Each structure stands twice: as C-alpha cells, then as structure tokens.
Amino acid sequence: MKPLIIVGIDPGTTLAYAILDLDGNVLRVSSSKQLDMNSLTANIYHIGKPLIAATDVNPAPKFVEKFSAVTGSRIVKPKESLKVEQKKELAEGQYFTNDHELDALASAIFAFKRVRALLRKIDFFLKKHKKEDLKREVVQLVFSKRVSISDAIAALEKKEPSSKVRKPKMRTEPIKVKFNETKYLREVNERLKAEISRLEGSINNLKTNTDRIANRRAKDLSGFKDKKIMFLTKELEDKKAEVMRLKEKVSSMNGLFFKLDNYLVVPKFKSLSFDELNDAPLKGVIFVEDPNVFSEKTLDILKGRVSVIIFSKPVVSKTLASKFLFINAKDLNAIVEDKFVLVDKSRLESEKDKANIFARVVEDYARERN
Q: Which of 54, 88, 149, 238 could form a disulfide with 107 if both were Cys (CB 3.0 to 4.6 A apart)?
C-alpha cells in the first residue's frame, strides 16, 4: 500500500511539484514544461497517495483546486501569499534547481508545518488506545472528511469490526489503482493524438509562412536590386557629367596654350598666413582667397616682393589696404585652378591703372582737405 504524502504544486508554463512524507522528509522535487494534470497525477501516484495539496499563494490556483478534487486531497494554503524571503527560509538546506521548484518545495514544507501538530496528535491518540494499525485510514478520514480522531476510529470500527473484513478493501485498492492507470493511459493516448494534430497544423502553418517569407524576401531582393540599379545609373550619369566637364576644361586649357603669352600665371593661396606664404615663390602678383587672415611675419615676407594682390573676399584691414594694390578677381575674369590662377595680362594692367587712378584721386582729395 502506497504511503500518504504531501504535495506542493506550483502551476504554470513550467509546472513544478515537491513531495514530502508525513514525517516531513523530501521525497522528490521536480519541474517540467511537459507536465499537465494527468502526467502530474501519474508521477505522484508512483510515490504515494496525496493527502495534502499545498500552495504558496492565496487564493489557491484553479489547477491546485482541480488536483485536490481529482486526488481527494485537502488543500493547505497560507492566509497571505508567501513572500520570497519566507519561501527561501522554508526551503533552506533543501535541493532545488529553479524558482518554480522553490515555490513548490516551500508550499509542501509550509503545509507540513501547518498539519504537523495534528499528525502528532493522531499518533499519540492511536498509540494510547492501541489502534496504530488504523493510522492510515484515520489520517485520511480526519483530513478528507474533517472529523475528529475518535469519530474516525468509531466509523472505521463500525464499518470494519474485524481485520478479516478489512482485508478485501486492501485487495481492491490495487484494482482501483490499475483502473486509474488505464484511464490515465487512455487520456494520454487521446492527448497525444490531439498533440499530433496540433503539430501537423503547426507544420502546415510553418510551410505557409516559409513560402510567404521566401516570396517577400524575393520581392525585397528585387526591390533592393532596383534601388541598386537606380543608384548605379545616377552614379554613372554623374560620372558622365564629370567627364564632360573635364573634357570642356581640357578643351579650354588647350585653347589657352595657343595664347599663353597673353596670360599671367599667378600663384594661389587661401590666406596671408605665415604657413601659407613661407618659402612660396612670390613675384609681383599673387591670388589670395581671404587676405584678411595675415600676420606681421607675413607682411615682412611680402615686402618688396608683392605689389598686387588679387582677392576673392573683400579686404577689411586698412593696414593691408595701405600697403598693397588690391584687385577683385571678378573684375579680371580670372581662370581659377587648384594651385594657380590665370589672369589676362592686358585686363590686369587695365585694372591696375583704374586702381592707381582711384588711389591718386583719394590722395588728392585728402591733400585738399588738409
């Protein structure tokens, strides 16, 4: 005859259970995602008959209530759901592998501590009245029917006045267990059939999704290919335009070669900084993008070597304006390249004359004012 046991249950996607005997010894702690009511009941009945179904939460989960109804066990739950610290304290020193098993184990130990006094009382009463042979049946009646110990003994003795009468009951229990196992196997078989049907449906869905994803990926690749073609086409057009621009420039430069004597090659600088002009070839005329950037060292370098500065940005410094002749590049229609500028000599001389005339007018005006 299988012993009476206390079963702690933590239901969920991962179902965990813990089994204790009536002395509080841990017989098993386990968990799995494959467990359901039938497989859980079968696993537990291999060890013993559930007397207590324990949970760590209040109210008790529906799964625990169903387990209690199926096994005829009594639910034991705390007044308030156990906190994590309480569960760890209850399970201290015991082996478990995850939080689900901790919950199940703590539930079982909590339930044992709750009923331990009543179990001891039953042991004391039976020993006192020399009824130890009725312990299993008395414990079952006291917990399942919630009757007193004396009423349980009286009911058992009235129903079974002699040990000879009790023997048939002992022989019929294996038949009941076998019947339950047969029923369980039938239910497992039906469940497996349903699972196979579900898996077949999942496979069909996966095939459909795979085809859909493959088609979508093909479309995505096609779209990517179209975008790539558009990008390359635009890049090709840009390259063609660049080639045309360079051809025009080459053609223009070729034309200049035949009349190069008419042009002055002027060195080009970004500013009048010392780093730009130091050791640079300077002779008469230079081109400067922004002449407002300069230093005293620069002026010493330019002194006696440069008289005309062609510029892009307007000159702000009065110091520079008083030392050099400045001509705007726009007035010269200069051909600006990366390292040099081509200036028409006759146009340059014309602009120099204008600038000189303007400078003389200013000087004469200033002299008359004085």
A: 54
Do 284 and 316 reside in the same domain of the chain?
yes
pTM of the model: 0.45
> In degrees to the nearest 10, what's the CA dihedral of 45, 47, 53, 54?
-150
Answer yes or no: do 109 and 147 share one domain. Answer: yes
Strands 340-344 and 335-336: antiparallel
DSSP character at residue 72: T
The DSSP secondary-structure symbol of 367 reads: H
Whether residue 143 is found in the same domain as residue 229: no
Residue 214's CB is within 10 A of a number of other CB atoms, namely 10
Can you tell me the distance from the alpha carbon of 356 to that of 252, in angstroms, rounded to the nearest whole number? 32
pLDDT tens-digit profile of 34-58?
889 988 998 898 899 999 999 999 9
Number of residues that make up the chain? 370
pLDDT digits (tens, 9 = 90+) for 298-328: 777 787 788 888 887 777 677 777 788 888 8
Confidence of residue 179 (pLDDT cuts 50, 70, 90): very low
Average pLDDT over residues 80-105: 94
Q: Which helix (H) or strand (E) holds 18?
A: strand 15-21
Q: Centre a 10 Å sphere on the Cβ of residue 329 and count the other Cβ atoms it contains.
A: 19
Judge contact between 13 and 32, C-beta under 8 A. no
- Of 104, 58, 55, give the one whose Cα is nearest residue 75: 55
Domain of 184, in residue numbers: 164-258
Counting residues of the chain whose pLDDT is more than 90, the rounded percentage is 30
Asked if 292 and 362 sit in the same domain, the reply is yes
- Last residue within a domain, chosen from 95, 129, 159: 159
| Residue that has been written with the tokens 């002027």 in this structure | 266
Residues 363 and 242 in one domain: no
On whether both 12 and 121 belong to a single domain, the answer is yes
CATH of the domain at 132: 3.30.420
At which of 258, 276, 303 does a domain end?
258
Pair 124, 225 in one domain:
no
Residues 26 and 148 in one domain: yes
Please state the domain count of the chain: 3
Burial pattern 46-82, b for ≥16 Cβ within 10 A else e, equals: eebbbbbbbbbbeebbebbeebbeebebbbbbbeeeb
